[in-house]
Amino acid sequence: MSAERAVGHDVVDRHSEEGSALIETIVVIAVLLLPLVWVATALLRVEAASYAARQAAREAARTYVTSSSSAAGAARANTAARIAYADQDVPVGSTAVTCTLSPCLTPGASVRASSRATVTLPFVPKWLAGAANLQVTVSSSHEQKVEQYGGQR
């Protein structure tokens, strides 16, 4: 009879632990997977901002040196930078253009465009991101030569 009780008791113990794997799985997902998803999302946002800053600087310099005047160049560079940021769905950063010679479009001169963008980390409210410094700033610059034989513009 004691052998039958042991077998019956073993069956009861096995049934009393049903469902614990579901709870363990939920805990593992919450503790391990959610932070991993957050880190991956943060890295993707920073990489997109980095690419947008590089593209904005490159396109701003290229459009500036191909324009007909310095005033038109500044407007075209600003538009090109805005398009580059919008292309990567990144908040528009700042873009500045500097020249080695005056006027800027002197043949053989160099035009340098610098671009800077700030990205907040995912799932962080904007009011907390600035106060707790939970932002990443990326920057890039690109230098482009004005055509040597294009004449003064």
UniProtKB/TrEMBL annotation:
Keywords from the named record: Membrane, Transmembrane, Transmembrane helix
Transmembrane segments: 20-44
Protein name per UniProt: Pilus assembly protein
Protein species of origin: Dermacoccus barathri
